[in-house]
Amino acid sequence: MSLVTTKKMFENALNSDYAVGAFNVNNMEIIQGIVEAAQEEKAPLILQVSAGARKYAKPAYLIKLVEAAILDTGLDIALHLDHGEDFDICKKCVDDGFTSVMIDGSKHPFEENIKLTKEVVEYAHSKGVSVEAELGKLAGIEDNINVDARNATFTVPEEAAEFVAKTGVDSLAVAIGTSHGAYKFKGEPYLDFERLKEIHSLIPDTPLVLHGASTVLPEFVKKCNEFGGDIPGAQGVPEDMIRTATKYGVCKVNIDTDLRLAMTAEIRKHFVEHPADFDPRKYLGPARDAIKGMVQHKIRNVLNASNKR
Ligand SMILES: [Zn+2]
Question: Residues of the signal sequence (predicted)?
C-alpha cells in the first residue's frame, strides 16, 4: 500500500478491454467516495489534481488526504497532476511526491510542445515519476466539423508517433472528439475511432488517455434541475463510446464532470427535502455516497475495471 506510478497499471491495461479511471479530487468527501468505490470494486485507481484544485485546497491538504486514504484502505494509488501548464508546476508536483504529472503543451506549436514535454520527462524520470503529454486540441469540437478543421484540432497519427519518439513520454492524451465540461456536443456525439485506431497502431506500446470523458448522465442533470438547478442542454460522451475506446489503446479515462453532477444533484435534493438541516455532515455524507455510487458505476459499466487490481 503506497503511492505508485501509473507504469504497472498501464502495462496491465494496455492490451486489454479495460481502462484505469482517473478521477479529479479537491476535497475530503470526494476522495473518500472515490477510494471506497475503488476498494470495493478492486479496481486500479488514479486520483488527479488540477492547478485549480491545488489552488482551492492547497497541495499539502490534498497530498495528506490521499496519503490518509492509502493508510485507511491499504490501496495502491497513483497521484497525478492534471494539465500542468509549464515546467515549474510539474517540477513542484514531482518534488511534492506526486507519482505522475501531465505537461499540457497542446496549446504550443508542435516543436515547442516537444521541447517542453522533453524537459519535464527528463526531470520527472530522474525522480521516478511518470509523464503524460497532450497532442491535438480538445475544446469546443462540434460534430459537424469538416475534415480540414478536424485535422487542425484532432491528433494527427504521424505526429503522435514522432512526438512520443522524440519526448520519451509515458502516455499521451489524444483529441478524437471529446471535450471538457458538461456541454460536449451540440448535435450527435461523435468520436473519431478510425483516427484512434491509427494512432494506436503507430504507437502500440504507448498508453493513450481520454480527457473530457464524462457522459453527463441525463438522470443526474434532471435531478439537479428538478431541485432548483439550471443546467439545460448538457450532453457528454455516450458510455458505449468510452468502452469502445478502451479497446484501442486507451488506458486512462478522465472523469470529473459526472462526479460534480452526482454530488451537486444529491446536495440540491437534500436541501429541498430537508430545509431544516444545517449540519454539513447531513448533506456532505450523502454527497460522498453519491460520488461513490457514480465511481462504482463507471468502474463496473464503463471502464470495465472491476477486479483488475
Ligand atoms: Zn483534461
Answer: none
Q: Which residues sit in the known binding site for Zn(2+)? A: 83, 104, 134, 180, 211
CA 211 to ligand 1 center in whole angstroms: 4
Binding site, annotated residues for dihydroxyacetone phosphate: 181, 212-214, 254-257
- Which residues, 6+ apart, have CB-to-CB distance to 49 below 8 Å? 24, 25, 26, 59, 62, 79, 80, 81, 82, 93, 98
C-alpha 50 – ligand 1 centre gap (Å): 9
Residue (of 63, 53, 45, 57) closest to 5 by Cα position: 45
Q: What are the residue numbers of the active site?
A: 82
DSSP per-residue codes, 126-188? HTT-EEEEEES--TT--TT--HHHHHHHSPPHHHHHHHHHHH--SEEEE-SS--SSSB--SSS
